[in-house]
Amino acid sequence: MPKADVYAAVEARRDRLETHADAIWESPELALQETDAAARIQEILREEGFEVEAGIGGMETAFVASYGDGDPVVGTMGEYDALPGLSQQRRAEPAPVEEGAPGHGCGHNLFGVGSLGAALAVKDAIDRGDVEGTIRYYGTPAEEVGIGKGAMVRAGAFEAVDAVVSWHPGWYNAPGKGSSLAVDGWTVTFEGESAHAAAAPEAGRSALDGLQLMNTGVEYMREHLPDAARIHYVITDGGEAANVVPPVASAEYIVRSPDRDRVEEISDWVERAAEGAAMIADVDVTVRKTSGIYGLLPNHTLGDAILETMRDLGAFDLDGDADLAADLRATLGDVSDAVAALPDDAAGEAANAAMFTEPIDDPEAGETGSYSTDSGDVSQVVPLGRLSAATWPVGTPGHSWQAVAASGSVGTEGMIYAAKTIGGTLYDLLDDPDLLAAATDEFEERNGDREYECPLPDEADPHDLVNR
Predict the structure, then answer these.
(1) Order of strands across the sheet with 163-170?
(2) For residue 177, which of 343, 369, 390 has the smallest C-alpha distance?
(3) Cα separation, 182 vs 228, whole angstroms
(4) Are the C-beta atoms of 63 and 55 separated by less than 8 Å?
(5) pTM summary value
(6) Domains in the chain, ordered, with CATH?
(7) For the chain, how long is the longest CA-to-CA vector?
(8) What's the pLDDT tens digit per position in 221-246?
(9) Which residues pair with 188 in a beta bridge?
(10) Which pLDDT score, from 0 to 100, does residue 463 have?
C-alpha cells in the first residue's frame, strides 16, 4: 500500500511538523523579512538530503529544494509571510500578543510546514523505490503583497517542473477548481509646496488636494467598471498639521478584475486620473507600480485527483483543541451566508459544527472567487492543483483575529491533513504517467495561445516593491 505509506510518513513526522508550525506562528515575519521561517524550513530539507538553492529572483527568503533524479518532476509550494497588525493570542477573544505586531491571519505558518510534510513524505517514497522522479519544494515569500511567486516565475524557477500541487488554509476540505482575481498594485505620491494655511495659502500648493481630487475621480470611475472589477485605496500620508499646506501626500491603490487585460486597462485609467488630479491641483505626481498578479488558471484533472485523495483519507477529528474551536466559532456570529455556499448536505452538517472536516468537491468550481493570490502566476506556466484544508472554525474569514488564533492552535490537524493530501496526490502524479499527461493536456488547452508576461515592473528589485 505505497500511497498509504505516504500518509504514514506524514504522520510519523507529526510532532516535528507541529513544532515548526507553532514556532513560525510565534515569530511572525512580514513579506521578504521571513528569514527565520525560511531558514527553519531549509534546514529541515537539507537534513533530509534535499539540494537547496536560495535567493531565487533576488529574494533572500525565496528558495527551491530538490530531491531525486530525472523525470517526472513534481513540486509543492510553501508560504510563510504574516500580515501586519494582526497579532493575536491563542484565545477566543481579541487579545494581541503585542499591540500592532504581525500575525498569521492567513495561516501561512501552517501552509509552509504542511507542504514541507508532503515533500518529505514523497522523498521517502522515492527512497523506497515506490516511485521514480524528482520532488521539489518551492519556498515562496511575500504572497501577501503579491510579489514572491511572480518574481520566482520571472527568474525561471518553474521552467523545469511538470506539475505543482499546493494548498491554503481555510474552513473546509476541498480541491480548488475555480479562478481568482488578477491584480495590479500602485503607490501614488503627490508633491506640492508647503505654506502657512492661514497667513499665506497662495504661496502653497497642496499635495493633499491632488490626492483628494484623484480619489474623487476614482469614485466616479466605479459606475463605469464591470461588476466584478474592484478598486481599493488607502491614504498613507495626508500631511502633518491642519494649518500647514501639505507638501506631500500619498496613497496605495489596488485594481482587481477576473481578466488580466481588464486590470491593465483600469490601471491605465487610474494612472490618467492621477495625472489629471495633479494638473488641477498644480502639483507633481509619481505613480509607481508595486505588484501585479494573474488570476488562477484552474486544472480540474488535478482537482479531481486531489478530491480522490481526500476521500481516501476521509474526515479527521480534532484533538484537545475542540473546545477552543467551538469558542472561536461562537465569536463569528451568523455565518449562514458562508455555509450556504456549500452543497446542501454539507451545509446542513457544517451549520452545527465547530469544524467541518468532511471532504467535499469545490463549491466554487468554474467560478471566480473574490480573492487574489500570486499562485495565479504559477498556474499560468505549469499545471497547478490547489486545495483548501479545514484549519479554522466554520465560516472563519481570512485576515481575522479568529484565523490567527486558530492557526496557532486548532489548525495543525488540518495542516497534517493537507500534507497527506498533497503527498498522496504528488505520489499519484509520479506513479501514473496518464494522470500527469491528462493534467498537462488540460493546462495546454486552457492556456491556448496565450504567453505569460510577468506583470511586475520590469526588472524591479522585489525589495524595492515591498518597501514602497
Answers:
(1) 51-54, 63-68, 134-139, 73-78, 163-170, 384-390, 174-176
(2) 369
(3) 11
(4) yes
(5) 0.95
(6) 2-178+295-447 (3.40.630.10), 182-293 (3.30.70.360)
(7) 84
(8) 999 999 899 999 999 999 999 999 99
(9) 251, 287
(10) 85
